[in-house]
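Re: [help] complex structure
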Amino acid sequence: MDFALTEEHKMVQEMVRKFANEAIPIIREYDRKHEPAPLLPRMAELGILGVGIPVKYGGQGLDYISLGLVCEELEYADSTLRVVMAVHMGLCAQTIFHWGTEEQKQKFLVPLAKGEKIGCGAFTEPGHGSDFAHIQMTGRREGDYYILNGEKMWISLATLADYAIVTVRTNPEAEKPHRGLSTFIVDLHSPGIKRGDIKGKLGVRAGSTGWIAFQDVKVPVENRLGEEGEGFKITMTAFDRGRYTVAAGAVGLIRAALDASVNYATERKTFGVPIGQHQLIKQKIARMARDYEMGKLLYLKAGWQMNEGIRATRMTSMAKWFATEAAFQAAHDAVQIHGAYGFSDEYDVERFFRNGRGSIIYEGSSEIHTLIQADYALGYRRDKPLRIELPPYDPEEWQ
Amino acid sequence: MKIVVFVKVTPDTAATVKVDDSGNVTWGDAPLVLNPWDEYAVEAALQTKEAHGGSVTVVSMGDESALEAIRRALAMGCNDAIRIDDPALAEDDTLSTAKVLAAAVQKIGDVDMVFFGRQAIDGDTGLTPAQTARLLGWPYVGLVAAFRELDADGGTFTAERAIEEGRQVVASKLPAVVSVAKDYGEPRYPSFMGIRKAARAKVPVWSLADLGIEAPAVKVRLTQLMNPPKREVQCEFIEGETPEEIAEKLADKILAEKVL
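Output below.
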């Protein structure tokens, strides 16, 4: 067993770390203004938006582990940067890479991976998140088109994306609700689409989170991903990819909370000594250090599984569940270590705390992941082979 | 144009460098990076290649840790790389280093320009570029901030030097050695394509025998290294009822302490 990162992984890490460090002052400014930070063009220019896709589809030819490392570095700076990778790459580009026809890959994946177009995943609805099988948005077949009607909610990059992966109900008569769903690649500039950002969010304030309303939106049949009725399975695999990025990002947030706490605890003095020498501060620091290592091992294992072509649903769920809860705990402890200063935006830990709360809810709440893990352990849940499996990483094929 | 850029691996600028009890310089487990000043040299070399064609070879002298710097330069866009390493180079000074680097330039052959960073952040002498130029018998233009003209076919160039008093414009002939100042402009990020290429690159290692030279004599030896003495710092808060009153007290204090 080799725990060492390759030279390539280390250089990717270093490069994205440099970008993330440069982005931090911009993030602070836009988080305060509660406006999306204008960092997408720079991420596209640097090729970050193509990590996790082979070169022949416009990507950078870097493997799934690289994608995790990139997410860790981005969320070290701010969750909004990692959110971009979760939805643009995890939910959108990699779902097309997994399920798309060659024509769909050429038409949609290539510009997404090159960063010429921005993608998102539109799954959650105002009344349906965890209970995804019962979503209400509809798609009615009319000749060579589907007519989409309904609303999607809590969609990251809703107002910035060009394309969305959208799952809707195409067969209301299906015996089991989840078998009546189909998934589409939708051009968000199509007539009948309205969208907007949600205001008043607790965290991810430097990013776009919004709603998309569809009224009689015509989507060509050739934009359907997979078969009709396959939407639930496709969406669940999209969640696998999204959860992987969230898990890796949360590990970055733990590291950010840890670094900030160590810096503060070695400088700030109470009772004549640096507060790092107090046992209850040590306990918090130790927990962050432990959780960073544990979260990292979990997401790297999931990345390794995807590289090898091993189904990673169980591992991405576990990594996401553990890392996001640990990240929120770390941010909470970091605020406590900073005392009153942690309660103000003078220090970044206040932002970490607000951002860390969201990821316990999105991409599968902790409650959902708890049930998933219990069902795997109890033998109630098994991964069945998919009609199309996620392509493994092949160093030759991906170049 | 055939361009060579010399780089060095140094401790990260964020590292805490100190002298340990055995008198050796240590930076703990801080990572080694491409000398930050050398990033500007790589950028200038790559821009020169992009404007005038040719290739950029990155060269570094050192043990395997030098690969950190070499890979970074390759990922930024250098075409190929050479590492110079030999047990006889365990001890060196700037002049002995310059002799080795000059020999490398001669072995590469037909080189038009040699780029250096202005200095390395560890030794901080900034002597090696000029010494290398002297040994090659080529003109040396230090602290280049920009090239106004470069005629590769005619073998001439005009450069702006960033000096304390401002900018100095210098005309020179090729081949030449230049060192590059920060004013040249921000170094580019490594590209992911470049990273993939750099990570897989097999970097040839040249020994002194490959260069056809003996180990150069070392004339400068560091006899003792020590940490700088601790400075006593006292902090005094100037207080007052209004900003104007505080400013007045502060000004008086500055004058009394002969700061101004």
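The first helix of chain A runs from residue 7 to 33.
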